[in-house]
Amino acid sequence: MKICISCGMPMTKAEDYPLKDESKDYCIYCARTDGSLQSFEEKKEGMSEFLMRTQGIDRAVAHKTAEEFMKKQPAWENYFDTV
Ligand SMILES: [Zn+2]
Question: From ligand 1's centre to the CA of 4, what distance in Å?
């Protein structure tokens, strides 16, 4: 079993992978419709929408929360060194 490098979700079945491609290291929720990994900003926005919807927090707080979470994921941990 692999764990998504972008969001930490365990990927247990083919449906969890982009285009059911189990060679990918990230999950379907972190992929674009063509199967490529979303950019940091795209993923942050998507995760923020999710947080606002499920936790009822405002956009600024959701962005901050999403960013803090993503910083700990392997796909993004070096992102802040390069900007
Ligand atoms: Zn993911």
Answer: 5
